[in-house]
Design a protein that fits this description.
By secondary structure, this protein is an all-alpha fold. The protein starts with 14 loop residues before the first helix and ends in an 11-residue tail after the last helix. The chain contains four helices and no strands. It has a domain of 72 residues. The radius of gyration is 26 Å and the shape is rod-shaped.
Amino acid sequence: MDNSKMTFTTDGMRIEGLFRALQGDIMWAFGFIGLAFVALVLSWRFIGQARRNNALAPHAANSATKTANMIFAAITILALGALAWRFAAVMAINRIPRADADKSGVYQQMKKNSGEADANSPAPR
């Protein structure tokens, strides 16, 4: 068995585990941004149609378009900010425990499971 590929780190979680932990949050954030983008495109269409039919003055149409763009930008920034906050929270909370920090049974069990224990110790139950 090649152990060179198995690296145990104590400085944080791996990127794959991070993305697995945040998969649902990432899907919700990008789904929400996608839904907001669809609403933005529909608002552009309705504003353009109202402008072409002279139901909306050009100045009012420009103002409505700018407002729709700003609302979309705010929604995008809020969604990405919330996602970044969630990334930071998961990375701060889900750290791999350090074996030198505590000599409790949990850490000893982790050592046994990772193969760092000596050969005479009993198998973990």
